[in-house]
Specification:
275 residues; alpha+beta; nine-stranded mixed beta sheet; two-stranded antiparallel sheet; 7 helices; 11 strands; 27% helix; DNA-binding
DNA sequence: AAGAAGTCCTGGGCGC
DNA sequence: TGCGCCCAGGACTTCT
């Protein structure tokens, strides 16, 4: 489940390998993954394009190309982007292969075919709606305590749904939402609008601390996640609540509760996290 | 209009 | 052993 720390780790491992290389040819094995444009245009418009930089916005990876267009990839649940030398046998569920200059291949692998791939002209609004609607980067300067407080105040949903809403904050998914709420000692069903100034400050701190800690650990490999070099992350060893329903709370020892909240499996401590 | 629910997809874990 | 069932969930669409 690549979330912000995993996507950032992919970006950091990928950029030194592919920046400056040219996309010679693209092989499409499962075209359903490409949302726009059509497959023939996708192949033609990518051919000969040089990758200038690899950026990240929320959970989206942005490959800046020299023809005023950007290759946009969202890994969703099980997507993997792996760089390897040509000739290495492709893994199962390989849907796209970008043949780059000097014998390197960039491969998009996705067991569940949930991933999203776009090739969008720069500066044209409406091309990738989800990307344009993203809220602030939680590790960016614009994400201040007052920014968070103001956004919480305006929402009628609970704080778990708030954290998962990409238009409020970009990049948080189910794993880090649960870890952040545990760190901030907030019950996932607490209404966002009822979070006071002190709690909002704690939540702000927890968001930034947990995401930074996870990036330092190169992300969480709970099921499928690997970076562009094929390596797993290390944050799964530091998870306090995610995937630990029914086990003792690491803080107080009481059993952690698992419950469906905001349509997602949520784990929390009924003692440490209060409404 | 905002929020909730349904949809996509496959592998793994479970019960019988 | 093997089959069927359910679960995992991010963003999109559809419904209320």
């Amino acid at each position: 489940m690549p979330e912000l720390p995993e996507v950032e780790t992919v970006r950091r491992t990928l950029e030194p390998l592919v920046a400056g290389r040219t996309i010679r040819r693209t092989d499409i094995y499962y075209g359903g993954i490409i949302k726009a444009p059509d497959q023939d245009s996708f192949r033609e418009r990518l051919a000969g394009q040089r990758i200038q930089a690899v950026e990240r916005r929320g959970k989206y990876l942005l490959f800046r190309l020299d023809g005023k267009q950007t290759l946009i990839i969202h890994l969703r649940m099980t997507g993997q982007l792996v760089a390897c030398e040509a000739g290495v046998p492709p893994a199962a569920h390989t849907h796209l292969v970008f043949h780059l200059s000097d014998g390197l291949e960039l491969r998009f692998v996705d067991i569940r075919k949930f991933g999203l791939v776009y090739l969008a002209p720069d500066g044209v609004p409406g091309a990738v709606k989800g990307l344009e609607a993203l809220g602030p980067e939680p590790l960016g300067q614009e994400f201040t305590i007052s920014c968070l407080t103001e956004r919480l105040r305006r929402k009628k949903c609970n704080v778990k749904a708030f954290l998962l809403d990409q238009t409020q904050i970009a990049g948080i998914g189910n794993i880090y939402a649960d870890e952040i709420l545990f760190a901030a000692r907030l019950h996932p069903e607490k209404p966002a609008a009822e979070i006071g100034p002190a709690e909002a400050a704690d939540l702000h701190q927890a968001i930034r601390a947990k995401l930074r800690e996870a990036i330092d650990c190169r992300g969480t490999s709970f099921r499928n996640y690997i970076d562009a070099r094929g390596e797993k992350g290390g944050f799964q060893h530091r998870l306090a609540v995610y995937g630990r329903g029914g086990k003792p709370c690491p803080r107080c020892g009481r059993l952690l509760v698992k419950k469906k909240i905001a349509g997602r499996g949520s784990v929390f401590c009924p003692d440490c996290q209060r409404l």
